[in-house]
Amino acid sequence: MCNFTVEPDERTMVELCDTGRRRYAEAIERGSLDAGLATDCLLELRLLEPGSDGQLVPVAPATAATLLLAPLRRSSQRQIEAIASIEGVYAAGPGVSRGEAGRQRRHAADPGGGEHQLRATGRGGRVP
Ligand SMILES: [Zn+2]
Questions:
Q1: Torsion, Cα of 1, 5, 35, 73 (10° steps)
Q2: Ligand 1: distance of its center to the CA of 99 in Å?
Q3: Which range is most confident: 13-22, 38-47, 88-97, 114-123?
């Protein structure tokens, strides 16, 4: 019967089971299938769609694939673009040199003007 694998944060993954394959072949042969005979995998894979009188009609695999995969491809493309954007920030660097970063760090740790006091004393160390 239907075999579902659920990955964390992923769409349900589906395989077409043997029963699903037989029922899909029946639907193609007869032109429709009773809704009660549809397997979960056929519905999940969109290989059947509602027809008239409560019957389900077969959908061509290429059409079903397009319908199912289009939103996943769009979502995947957005993630690829987000990754590239973030990588671009790291690749460009934070935009400050090591010396500048050190001065900013000291100033942030001593906003009272420690750097100015260092200049005033002419010494290399911090003013007590
Ligand atoms: Zn199945």
A1: -140
A2: 64
A3: 38-47
Distance from the CA of 17 to the center of ligand 1, in angstroms?
A: 4
30 part of a folded domain? yes
Q: Is residue 113 part of a domain?
A: no
CA 71 – ligand 1 centroid, Å: 22
Global confidence as pTM: 0.59
What is the domain count for the chain? 1
**pLDDT tens per residue, range 7-53:** 555 556 679 999 999 999 999 999 999 999 999 999 999 999 999 88
- Ligand 1 centroid – CA 100 distance (Å): 63
Per the domain annotation, does 102 fall within a domain? Answer: no
- Token pair of 3 as six digits: 């075999």
55 within domain boundaries? yes
Ligand 1 midpoint to CA 58 (Å)? 15
Range of the domain at 23: 3-92
Ligand 1 centroid from CA 79, angstroms: 30
- How far is Cα 78 from Cα 70, in angstroms, rounded to an integer? 12
* CA 52 to ligand 1 center in whole angstroms: 23
CA-angle at 58, arms to 56 and 61, nearest 5°: 145
